């Protein structure tokens, strides 16, 4: 299931993934919310808090996620993946070289920092 993170900054499309993530989650929630943000801000700042195993994403969910990226290819500004899965963190950091915009991984304990970075490109100073 995917839900919107309500405390996200206004210019960030932020989602939390828990349990099973389906194609319908993307079609009914993620894609319309992302479309609204891109229309409003003319760029995409995106955050996904991954609180589920990647195996819980159905094939349809992966396809919708990929289509989301392709549809908004020129609008990507910043994208944060928040997870404690090191493989996903490494993939996100490598993926940032291939895609327009900035992609960055954050450990779960740094959700606030990830939201702040998505909003304005800076991290919170500790």
From TrEMBL:
Q: Which domain of life is it from?
A: Bacteria
By its UniProt entry, which InterPro entries does this protein fall under?
SpoIIAA-like, SpoIIAA-like_sf, STAS_dom_sf
Protein's name according to its UniProt entry: STAS/SEC14 domain-containing protein
This protein's species is: Chryseobacterium glaciei
């Amino acid at each position: 299931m995917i839900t919107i993170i309500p405390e996200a900054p206004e210019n960030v499309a932020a989602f939390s993934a828990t349990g099973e993530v389906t194609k319908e989650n993307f079609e009914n929630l993620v894609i319309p919310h992302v479309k609204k943000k891109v229309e409003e801000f003319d760029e995409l700042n995106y955050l996904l808090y991954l609180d589920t195993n990647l195996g819980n994403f159905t094939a349809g969910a992966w396809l919708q996620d990929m289509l989301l990226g392709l549809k908004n290819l020129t609008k990507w500004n910043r994208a944060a993946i928040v997870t404690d899965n090191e493989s996903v963190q490494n993939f996100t950091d490598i993926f940032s070289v291939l895609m327009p915009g900035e992609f960055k991984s954050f450990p779960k304990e740094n959700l606030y920092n990830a939201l702040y970075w998505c909003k304005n490109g800076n991290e919170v100073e500790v």
